[in-house]
Amino acid sequence: MNWDILGHEWAVQLLKGHIQRDRVRHAYLFCGPMGVGRRTLALRLAQALNCPQPTAPGEPCRTCRTCTQIERMQHPDLSIVQAEKQGGVLKVDQIRELGRGLGLAPYEGRYKVAILLRFEEANDNASNALLKTLEEPAPKVVLVVTAESAESLLPTIVSRCEVMRLRPLQVDQVSRGLQTNWDLPPDQAQLLAHISGGRPGYALTLHRDPDRMKLRGDWLDEHAALLENNCVQRFKTADKLAKKKDILHLELSVWLSLWRDVLLQAAGASIPLVNPDRSEDIKNLASEYDLNTAQDMVSNIERTMDLIDRNVNPRLALEVLMLDLPGTL
Fold first, then answer.
1. Is residue 107 part of a domain?
2. Rounded to two decimals, what is the model's pTM?
3. Of 17, 171, 205, 270, which residue is least crowded by CB atoms under 10 Å?
């Protein structure tokens, strides 16, 4: 059994082994891109630690009251800590409140489990407060931190955690899983597997929320229009985008996926496209701009995302990106 998780078999087996040998670590760090399955793996670990009727050592039943409460993130011995919204800030008061709760004995399970989601969004004070908690772990407490990368966190936090790096799955593996586990038609499953870049959680989000799929299309259309716009129009778009802080990272990620596809097309690579439904647009861009331009655009968008993540003024960062876009000025 793989804890009903699509992929990441090695991670499940490792965690099962820790439970079976009674060698559970007091802190884990699950790294990987958004939608790869970090939160799902953390919840399955919480179920495996606290299920009162496991089907085998380290195998939660997934059906009892405890397992269903943990699945809904509502169990009394489970704490979920995250910024109020994606792209927000996880604050020190949240970590201090968590610390007070972790000092108490488990209410009804064997372990108190705290899952700290997207911890790269924590401010410096929150990071330092977590470090104190990690240095003085309470008995029967397991902390699970999730982040896009270990490098985005304090090295002292990383060094006190068992680090598990989750990587995107093969596109065909995600497609088969979507068809088998969620009864998606083959064409839809294949498209979502490609668009998600092998991230099953993101693929399911797109499936369950058609508005997100439409939004992705709108973002790609907006980007196509920018390539035809003059400087004044581009700067107006930069101003509009800078005000959408909660979804700006997602939109830039979609633009980045497009230019990576253009780069692959221009290089003649046989790697499948992330945006197969835009294959004609990608071919046209690859024929209009050379390989160096595609490489520059990938670098420019990555640099812009990094600057915004480091709290550089988003409007200024976006205006520079607008000047770097190829096409009409």
1. yes
2. 0.88
3. 270
